[in-house]
Amino acid sequence: MGRKLVFTSGKGGVGKTTMCANIGIALSILGNKVVMVDADIGLNNLDVVMCMENKVTYDIADVVEGKCRLKQALIQDADFPSLYVLPSFHNYDTANITASNFKSITDTLSTGFDYVIIDCPAGIDSGFHRAVAAASEAYVVTTPHISAVRDADKVMALLNGYPLLNIGLIVNRVRGDMVVNGEMMTAGDISRLLKCTPTGVVPDDDSISIKSDIMRHTTECEVKQAIMILAENISSGKRHIYDCTNDYRGIFGKLKVKIRKMF
Ligand SMILES: Nc1ncnc2c1ncn2[C@@H]1O[C@H](COP(=O)(O)OP(=O)(O)O)[C@@H](O)[C@H]1O
Ligand SMILES: [Mg+2]
User: Fold this and answer.
1) Is 200 a pocket residue for ligand 1 (Cβ < 6 Å)?
2) Host domain of residue 223
3) Which among 89, 144, 201, 224 would be 20 to 30 A from 170, CA to CA?
């Protein structure tokens, strides 16, 4: 049976879909068979980030309604043959997709894949419950901003009520220059506040704004290294944390901090 990981947050816009897409690609680069399931039903961001929106023939609602078999709704990635996406329903009516039929779909997928990655919607309503109840492990994504951390704290408390094997923490969009200057919370600060050891720390990087599926591209950048380390931590249970402040230490680092402040 494969592992079923849900990426959740409470607050929207912190990078859940971006993390799902890129960690999914990284896990498939590491040799795993991976399927990503978009539980943000109605908004279908995952197939857009994965550049698959034009390939969608069937979606999760068609599977639930018996219009197609589960296998027919899966879209295979063009670059990574061991990576698939199950797209979400393209309409806002989510009534037919109950927590129990969502769970039965992810359970079935876990028999044929090493990883089932579930992209959770923002908020803590029924969409959150549907996504989390189907998972065996949860990863809370937050940015180092107080509103995101506060929402992550609420989500952590809710997750404790589910029979999960592991709850991890991903601190996304860390600005090394601001951490060095004491202007941004560190992953350590956030970890202490949330009482959860980080599984990974990901720098704020414009490369992601330009190419949201950055792991697919050959461009070498900080964020790719950090996501690969994070995916290795997920698969091996290790805790190697990418140091986002590396580039901003020493004489040249201080110069970089000054230059970044100017723009
Ligand atoms: N590490 C990062 N550096 C820079 N931009 C990022 C990073 N992670 C996510 N983003 C950007 O933040 C925005 C929201 O990300 P998204 O994954 O859609 O969030 P969510 O799924 O939590 O709503 C997107 O424009 C994405 O490109
Ligand atoms: Mg999203």
Assistant:
1) no
2) 3-262
3) 89
